[in-house]
Fold this protein.
Amino acid sequence: MTTRIFGSGIRRREDPRLITGRASYTDDIKLPGMLHAAILRSPYAHANIRSVDASGAAGQPGVVAVYTGEDTDGVLNGLPCAWLIPGSDLKTPAHPPVAKDKVRYVGDAVAVVVAESRYQAEDALEHIAVDYEPLDVVINPKAAAQDGAPQIHEDVPNNIAFTWALAGGDTDAAFADAAVTVGDTITLQRLIANPMEPRSALAQWSAATGELTLWNTSQNPHIARFLTCVVTGVPEHKIRVIAPEVGGGFGSKIPYYADEAITAFCSMKLGVPVKWTETRSENYLITTQGRDHIEEVEMAATSDGVITGLRTTVYAGLGGYLSTASPGVPTILHGLMYSGPYNIPNISGTVYGVFNNGCPVDAYRGAGRPEATTLIERLVDLVAAAVGQDPAEVRRKNLIPKFENGHDVATGITYDSGDYESALDSCLSAAGYEALRAEQAQARADGRCVGIGVSSYVEICGLGPSQVAGAVGFQGGLWESAIIRFYPTGKVNVMVGSSPHGQGEETTFAQIVAGEVGVDVDDVEVLHGDTDNTPMGWGTYGSRTTAVSGAAIAVAARKIKEKSRALAAHLLEAAPEDIEYEDGRFFVRGSPDQHKTIQDIALMANVAWNMPEGMEPGLEASAFYDPPNFTYPFGAHVAVVEVDPETGHIDLQRYVAVDDCGVQINPMIVEGQVHGGVVQGVGPALWEGAVYDDDGQLVTGSMLDYALPRADLLPEIEVHSNSTPSPHHPLGVKGIGEAGTIASTPTVYNAVMDALRPLGVTRVDMPLTPEKVWRAINDARNGG
Amino acid sequence: MFPAQLTYHRAGSVAEAVQLLSDNEGAKLLAGGHSLLPLMKLRLAAPAVLVDIGRIEALKGISASDGGITIGALTTHAEIASSDLVQQNAPVLAEAAALVGDPAVRNRGTIGGSVSHADPASDQPTVLTALGATFNVTGPGGDRSIAAADFATGLLENALNDNEVLTSISVPSVPSGAGSAYVKFSHPASRYAVVGAAAILSVSGGACSSASVAVGGVETKPARASSVEAALAGSDLGDAALDAAAAAVGGDLSGDPMGDVFASAEYRRAMAAVYVRRALGAAASRAG
Amino acid sequence: MTVPVEITINGKACAGEVEERQLLVHFIRENAGLTGTKVGCDTSQCGTCTVQLDGVSAKSCTVLTVQASGSSVTTIEGISDGVDLHPLQEAFWNNHGLQCGFCTPGMIMAASELLRNNPSPTREEIRHGLEGNICRCTGYQNIVSAVEDAAGKMGGR
């Protein structure tokens, strides 16, 4: 049998074009007559614009047009925020695509030059004179929320865009009664997503047809079409958004940006295609960043280490403006996960969403959940230390016992299925935890500084039920749709509204179809990314593509199967209930020789020479899948580190991951997601962090300063998995894209703190750079 | 990502390069381009004229010379890292060359370009300072030599006149039986040296007969660690001696410290002692 | 000001009139139309623009086109015809050594030099050999496996 196997680690069908350099990403596309845009960006983090004089740029070589906020004002609408958290007093100040009166972060767009070449466009930027009146700047989100802080938007006092509160149980009583309370202030620093492909937009306006085509590095082309309509006023059905090959996104290609709108504006003004591609330096300034939390957190427990309460106050930096989804990230995707995999009967939290003079913050891989898992896992370790028990044991005694179909937690959500203790056991066993602790004791006796970190986690993904989306203020649905179309030769197109960009769903979706109706995976072509040839869908993020789009495909495939069964029964002159299906063949029960293959059925359905009474021709099915619940993958991770106390260097020596994402369609791809996810969480623990100075200048403005994980800095990630199917999903799958990132930051952080504990170090802010660790050690030695 | 307009000349000889520099005020030399082009792409540098010396054969290659080796300015880091002549005469230079940047950077980046750029976070200036190398320079008035320790004059500033070309570097052979080492605290992002320490130690009759030590990355130019060297002289190169000697490096730092968000001046100073100690330890273990 | 240049790319002479400031990566992408070579950063860090320049790997964003005039360049499009794959391409595919694919051309070009210099590298040596190329998707692990696999297939071990 050929490779039609659902559940097998077949190699990816998208790879041949990628490994040969024949794939087309947005910036690879060149249209006849295409011009190039470059955008002038504010060098100030906060300033009034007194005047913009673009006249000097207009006559520069190759320059075709120069536009400022005066030109776009009243033509382009403001950039909308699409997640309006109810009950949070959310303020949504205007976000003009081109700033006219005021700039609010370094990188805010001020003018655009369109020229024959990108070099010429860049040259001309230097001839635009902007007179700024610099204003006071605030970066730290807690400082920004205080009285007297520089006010970034006039109608937002104390820069507080929203205040979101969560309460379950009686937290005050839990803390009042607690034998043990622990607390900390945790900084989840700003992170730069760093997809290797910079963002790009290519707009082509046709005045003759009134149609706008936008090639765009987007994770969600249908949302991009919708928001392009909102911002440009071009009707939705006259806009075609194409996300061609997209080189990673990690959340940063979800939002709708000023740059896309500006590029479309230029094309509409000039009547020719216009392309804009960000440089990496621009990416660092303007492409949404992640995290930026200051979390004041505490946990209550019994003297035996049973957790009784959790309380948080979080200041979540938003940057200079609200981005597309930013209010939902530190609230719905964060606070609702405060119970983690534990029984915590009393939970309360307050999240302040705060404007500050940095790049806008939005979803970044894990989006809210790493910020939750890090605080929970840090506090559990502090409880373990306070009660003098092994951190793994404290976790075990607090884990929610195994459940197969629904468990309610104090934050008000219902986990779908979980077996957290098995995951922890698997991980401890794979790591050789007891032996590791023995080795650690020996190492400490030898004067070495070795640490072991353990984390248990559960995350919310597979977003999500649209009714819930509406209830929590998401300005869209969260269902997905799929069309499966069989051609006469038995070949198949699958069209989906989600838009994978590296996650491998061209392969896993083909595997779903192959598994359901028995075609060869090589006979299935998955189409995505072009709003003109795919059905509506809400995009690829939140580990939702396989969970939601995959379900839509499974449901559509089952419709194909049922129609095929009925047609086979007709052709085999049997009753449909007597038709059995196996491996792509429909046959009369007891007579496997009397059969029709799915290809036979596809041919007959397409030519329609002999159809049952009332059956429509064609073999095509569509499905709209709106999930009944989110999915909740989980797992446990262990890390081993050694710290060089003389320099503060951290050597990550081992990393063991056990993840349970339910049923796996392609284990090779699952493993790849874990590798990449873990490393993206190790980065912020050890190296990564966007640093702004007091003037709001990005100090880590290039890859020379912002330290991304490199091959030689990492150990082999030891990946294992369990499988607890989601009870509500047609295939039992949950999602795996973000799990590694959610788990690994606290795992590595806890390992380092475990290493430093004997030295008397109680806290160090991430990233745990050598100097910070060295200082903490010295301060502890000096009695600090 | 998009350099400003410029005029490019490819020089066929050193004399032509000198002439082009003399004729074009503000002209910059271009060799491998790995120091200059990144600045030009970010428009932090915008020389109107570039003089490409990258194809002048006379500036390439490594040869044995009196008492040492001569390395053409255009010799790449990769060539130095894999050169037998360097390995035999100044192995510490090869050790450091292998730690520069990454493989593609080592293929294009040249030793002459690297030292001329005078970035204190570069590796080779520190090693060449420890080695007591001499930089050979040609200008309109002829040739002259500059000691390695005098070549960098400050942050990204060197002792070359605007119309001079660095042609080669003369490196004396390390004494027979000497142990040498270069130890680097690599910046995790840029791969430049946060701190780099080079040491060359000779032993005679169980005692240190000569020591040459330099440290880079800490200040605006590499520092010759003469206090460390003095402390080592005559010592047994045992742990205690090396500890004490390394601790003396503070006396060799001029008080012109560099610091940034990743590593403060105070931390770099502290790490100077740690990395000098590690370089001494490695060099001592290789000596004899 | 433009000047004439001629560069042999993947065995084919490519002549053009270019600005003296043009970066080689832009000549490859714009003038020669070979877009497999990518631009991922401004600072010579990421390695997505890695090509072979006169036989050794180079970051084509850190070379001027005029500097490379007279030289020969091999890009990802030149190491196989796209059908009969180079062993490294095959190994990246078999070992799931890529996800979004953006870093892959540069990664393969860097790996090919690594294997030329060290036909049977250890995993540790592979990790060091790829220190100039950043991948944000894979965590590098399957890239290391792919290079190891290719080394075996190419007779290195």
User: Anything to note?
Assistant: The helical segments of chain C are 24-31, 65-68, 87-94, 104-117, 123-129, 141-153. The domain at 2-78 of chain C is CATH 3.10.20.30 (Ubiquitin-like (UB roll)). DSSP finds six helices and five strands in chain C. The CA atoms of residues 36 and 77 of chain C lie 7 Å apart.
